[in-house]
Amino acid sequence: MLFKKLFPTVEHSVKYNPAIDGLRGIAVMLVVLFHIYPGSFFSFGYVGVDIFFVISGFLITQIIIQKIRKGNFSFKEFYRNRIRRIFPAMLIVLMFFYLIGYLFMFPTELRDFSSHIVWSGFFAENWKLIIEANDYWNKNSIYKPILHYWSLSIEEQFYLFWPLLVIFLSKLKWRIEYLIILIILLLFIIPQFFNINAYYHSLSRFWELLMGGLVAVIVTDYSESKVIKSIEQYEFVFLILFLVSILVSFGNNTYNYYKTMLLIISTGLLIISINKGDKLKILSSFVLVSIGMISYSLYLWHYPIISFVVYYLGLKVKGIYVLFASLFISFLSFRFIELPFRKSNSYRLSIILLLILLSIISVSFYTEIKNGLPDRNSIQKFKKYWNKVHPLTVDSNGLLLLKKFKYSSKLNISFVRSSSSDSSKKYVIILGDSHAHLSYTGISYYFKRKQIETLLLGNNGCAPYSCFLKCKNDDELFDNYKILNFLNSFNNNIHSIIFITRVNYYLKQLKDINEIKNCVNETFNILSDLRVPVFFLIQIPQVVLIRPSPFQNDIYEESLHIYRSKYINQREYVPIIKEIAKKYRNIHIIDPESVFCDYEKCYIIKNDTLMYYDDNHISVEGSYILGRYIVNEVMKVIGTNNDTTIAK
After folding, report:
1. Residue 389 is assigned to a structural domain of this protein
2. Cβ neighbours of residue 216 under 8 Å, at least 6 residues apart?
3. What's the distance, Cα to Cα, between the start and end of the chain in Å?
4. Could you say which of 29, 311, 403, 494 has the lowest number of CB atoms within 10 Å?
5. What is the model's pLDDT at position 41?
6. What share of the chain is helix, strand, coil (3-state, %, to 5)?
7. What span, in angstroms and rounded, lies between the C-alpha atoms of 87 and 606?
8. 354 in a domain, yes or no?
9. Residue-by-residue DSSP string for 509-573
């Protein structure tokens, strides 16, 4: 009784099967847990989208085939139903988070977010992500609040042509299931031979929806066959196969066609096995069916909730709170937004929903071309802190210089930038991770003023410490041995090396103090062997970055700094590093404490300049302040002597 009150029965175009909603519940929870706990035990959770594709293809094809065979299929009715099913919750989510972005985002952030709303509104978010070369597993993906609309875009693209194709195939003499199998095979094979994005491209995903369509044809036309009846008797076996096919993707951080094929086939077989019976009580359980019924709203709401929480609280988010908040909001969305609209058969209402979507697209497009509305009243007091610019990761000078020294194009480097491509000059090498990348702009500027060139070589989240010379980051394996080998061959052109990393990030991964000492010592030994002056930058303070707020009349002083005592706690390894550095005559420590801190506080803003890009990376403006200090410290040691090579 309580269940029926909370989740009223909805009129369905095909016979309702609660086990399908249970399967939806599993799919959406896989995705949600994957997004809340990335890189954790739920590393396989992204496959929930593949399960959704099969279910969607199955249900939509059932509807189309049944109506075609009854002779009452109507394109007008089909797309009306799609609009009333998809648009209401989607529009509310887009409007709500656009408003949040309008109130709290910096202009550059709102501009980029609005651009994604435009593409999502046209159901082309997957193409936007392809254009941006966005990797689904990249840590920065969390800053794209509606990135997950890529899958909704693919489904809607599929719905545009699939009814036409089903009608066409139905009129041919060949059996429709054979034709669908042929199309599936073609779409599965094409991406293997053409350079298209495996994860986001429509052609690399349509076959999954078509597999659901094939299942719909099978259960419609062959429900009384011996094979289907046998499958129905072994639903528990197919449930086990389904679960195993999910788990084989454990630890994956890239899309695998063959593992996906296994999952798609096992999902299809499971749907066939549960299509008529209800022996698998677990799939029809209250919890899974309830989650399955709110799965569409949950899918729409959970990712922007996670994204905006990360925007304001950083990456260390209490996932359980986000999970329950997402479930609660999604239930309200299902109960009071989805259900009322799904009960309406009005074509006029569908047109109104379409016009609302066009209005959202128009407002978002205007916001994008106006660069994120920099004159918003809600953030006027933050005007001087707007410029959140992410510098280039790779430039032509850097690539040309590496090419001249025959650095293999197959080698994987995140950050390659240089102030020159002249192979006869000497270069300061800025070596490290994303901290080196974000510091490069200011350092290279001040060295250029002294007629000294710079070359940035670094890998994101993977610095060349002896204990982390090879590391997996997102879907890439970074091999810092290769960078160090290149430096050996480039040695005659090296002026000096500046080693910049997020020190604690690496050393905290080690087990004990002896392992930490060994790692630092071996790293310094590797750098010392290059026989040039090496400057090791102590980690900058990690802060809590201020953000716009319309509810704040002024920027509170406590938002502008952290207490120095907190920074001291972040420097737990500095005494070890300084002590080990004394053993090497060409290793020099640069401590940025005086750049950021006085006796009591470490400042986020200095000389009216926002020093930070996020809570632990320097901003471009901050790189000039830090860069000037670093260059001065380097020049104190090496002076203006061009011969910087140190005899071993």
Report:
1. no
2. 57, 58, 59, 61, 62, 65
3. 83
4. 403
5. 82
6. 60, 10, 30
7. 47
8. yes
9. TSSSHHHHHHHHHHHHHHHHTT-S-EEEEPPPPP-------TT-SS--GGGGEEEHHHHHHHTTT
Residues 411-438 as b or e (16 or more Cβ within 10 Å = b): eebbbbbbbbbeeebbbbbbbbbbbbbb
- Report residue 268 as tokens: 């299809």
Distance in angstroms (rounded) separating the CA atoms of residues 96 and 158? 27
Q: Where are the alpha helices (DSSP H) in 12-139?
A: 18-36, 48-70, 75-104, 107-121, 125-131
Range of the domain at 154: 2-371
Same domain, 347 and 460: no
Same domain, 354 and 424: no
Give this prediction's pTM.
Answer: 0.76
In terms of Cβ atoms closer than 10 Å to its own Cβ (0-12, 13-18, 19+), residue 325 is middle
Name the percent of the chain lying above pLDDT 70: 90
Residues 463 and 575 in one domain: yes
Domain count, the chain: 2
Cα dihedral 440, 441, 443, 445, rounded to 10, equals 150
Residue length of the chain: 648
In a domain, 390, yes or no: no
For position 642, what pLDDT does the model report? 44
Do 189 and 275 belong to one domain? Answer: yes
Mean pLDDT of 307-336: 84
The pLDDT, as a whole number, for residue 382 is 63
Query: Which residues are CB-neighbours of 324 under 8 A, at least 6 positions away?
Result: none
**Do 300 and 416 fall into the same domain?**
no
Q: What is the CATH number of the domain that holds 605?
A: 3.40.50.1110
Q: What is the spatial distance between Cα 115 and Cα 110, in angstroms, rounded to a whole number?
A: 8
Q: Which residues pair with 458 in a beta bridge?
A: 415, 432
Do 339 and 425 belong to one domain?
no
Name the nearest CA neighbour of 474 among 165, 124, 43: 43
| Residue 481 shares a structural domain with residue 346 | no
Residues 53 and 143 in one domain: yes
